[in-house]
Predict the structure.
Amino acid sequence: MSLAKTLTIAGSDSGGGAGIQADLKTFQELDTFGMSVITALTAQNTLGVHGVYPQSLEAIEDQLDAVLSDIGADGTKTGMLFSADIIQLVAKKVKHYQLSNVVVDPVMIAKGGATLLQQEAIHALKEHLLPVATVITPNLPEAKEILGWSKDIETVDEMKEVAKALHKLGPEYVLLKGGHLSKGPAIDLLYDGNKMTEYFVERIDTKHTHGTGCTFAAAIAAELAKGASIEEAVQVAKDFITAAIANSISIGSGIGPTNHHAYQKGNK
């Protein structure tokens, strides 16, 4: 049996709701073969991040070379990369192995507020990784950080302006997520340099949204790996994460995770 191969390069979430764990669950649910390169360990639960322990560059490089020199990847998703050195290493390997379908989720801040990307790493992200990305998937606070904007993004028209500015940094596509808009439906914008495509659903009333960004980006990578167009991949990912949020899991004492199995159970 042949399956599309999907690789996540990200941090480990010991609580299982985000990071490597969320990505692998998503890859499995969307019928791809998931692989991982762990950039950092986090001590994490529904109450927040209690510790971040970056892996050495040697350990990260060895993982990348082991997977890519032998198995390869039809789709790759990056998540928590933490430092400028790690970002530069990952970008170098993307070029060396000529990876396609690279989804960059610029993870910066955890749900509980913990910093997951060092400030000096933002420059490396812009200079090295965004230009080799097929699609980047920032939320509104992440987009502000990347662009160095102080003003909050509050309308869809402002989102369009932001998407255009992000596209100038080099990615083939920008998927700007509008979940942080203060009102209205949850709108995401896909921009290819010419056309804006809107994806929206009504907001779901739940606090259990841990891992939504990781899961959304992983679903896009899985669909691209299987040969879907970017528009098709984003639509499946939107359906996947909507089902996961609508059927989120109430565990622990804080912000619970989304339900990665909900989409396959028919809760679409």
